[in-house]
Design a protein that fits this description.
Rossmann fold, alpha/beta, about 20% strand, disordered N terminus, seven-stranded mixed beta sheet, single chain, disordered C terminus
């Protein structure tokens, strides 16, 4: 683990530089330490954002990349084809809660931050608060969250999101999607091993 690119801030939030060579692996490892045991709760990723704003497209880009990879044992909502954004967020959350029994939700969204942290992926406990950067009141999403700092906060946030470089957002989306996919492979393997062990135990 590279401590220069993977660390915890004062709030206990893991931080990973998106362009580090081990960024995807570090993200996968962090997720695997947080996710509940398989079969206890369905794992649902809610990727928030819209393709109408470059900076805010991080979530649906991740959702689309995951949809293409078809990760095992994880459910994914929010893609470029079917984005989850301010207009339909409450409806989609209701749909997810109706469709899945007590889901463990990971909220994914873009955010703004300090200049030195742009390009950083954050993983932390508690929900993501979509719309907070542009002063919108929306439901909080997730038992835990993954956010990507795509640009600088503090002044004309809506304009800043609109003018964020797609190159950075795409690189971050690929790293995050790769990390989630790697986590899904290990999570599925651990789950099957656990189920096999339980089955053998019950045989005797």
């Amino acid at each position: 683990m590279n401590l220069k690119t993977y660390f915890f801030d004062r709030r206990g939030k893991a931080q990973i530089n998106h362009d580090d060579v081990h960024a995807a692996e570090d993200l996968a490892a962090e997720l695997l330490t947080i996710l509940p045991p398989m079969a206890s709760r369905p794992i649902v990723f809610v990727c928030i954002g819209t393709d109408r704003s470059t900076g805010d497209s991080l979530g649906p880009l991740i959702g689309t990349l995951l949809e293409e990879k078809r990760p095992k044992v994880f459910y994914v909502y929010g893609t470029l084809d079917e984005p989850i954004h301010a207009v339909n967020l409450e409806e989609k959350l209701h749909e997810i809660m109706t469709k899945h029994d007590n889901p463990y939700i990971i909220g994914i969204d873009a955010c703004l931050g300090r200049m030195k942290n742009v390009g950083t992926i954050q993983v932390g406990s508690g929900p993501v608060k979509p719309g907070a950067g542009v002063n919108k009141q929306l439901p909080a999403v997730g038992d835990i969250h993954i956010t990507g700092i795509v640009n600088v906060s503090g002044f004309m946030e809506f304009f800043v999101l609109q003018n964020t470089r797609l190159n950075l957002v795409m690189k971050m989306a690929k790293t995050i999607a790769s990390g989630i996919y790697q986590a899904s492979l290990v999570y599925a393997k651990q789950s099957w091993t656990r189920l096999d062990w339980v089955g053998e135990e019950q045989t005797y």
